[in-house]
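=== Per-residue structure ===
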Amino acid sequence: MDAGPTPLDLMVFGPIRSVNIFEETLERVAYTIKSGIYQPGTRLPSERELAARLEVSRATLREVNRALEQAGYVELRRGRTGGAFVLERPVEASMEQARRVAREMGDQLPAALDYRWAVEPAAAALAALRADDSGVRQLEECHAECMAVSGRAYRGADVRFHGQVALLARSPTIAAAVTGIQQELSDLFSVTPVVESVLRHSDDQHAAVVSAIKSGDAAASRAAMEEHVKGTEAFLRAFLT
């Protein structure tokens, strides 16, 4: 039996408010695959469940699933145990690929990085003020997951960590903003080569965020997250420009 939706699932799969319903739905579902929220071999939520959570028709979900199948993201299986199953999708990660994606993003890239710098530290500060013990334990579990993985698997763990911080802020608007930023940057991160020393440095920065949130120190939480997002920005600028 599949587990129920996680808080991060609920945050990513909130109601679609765009006039471009099909395109926005496709982008949301594809993001959960490209970012590693759903790993190869796992089943996406059912059409019925996603249609209810996204507030779109099941016909739209069927069209989205067909598009994802044609693009090589999922395998559609029939029957009681069927559904849309995520496929292993080799990613050509190279600096040239990453630079190409960065060029295609144009002004959208610095704008997204600026927005991230404004939003995620604020989310961490609010998390320090509003998180309960259960939420902090979940954040610690997300941090432990990051430390336990390497390579491309790190991306999904990192998304879950930042999503948990946003959830602890207990602000649907901020949670949606953090999800949107991660979604905007997902294509770039998916083709940026993995540097293990950078991942381990990221772990140290995550640890500082966890410690500050756990202690209830909003200023320290904001500062720790600012250091982390600026570190990511510096890495991207160093390698992509």
Notes: The longest strand covers residues 74-77.
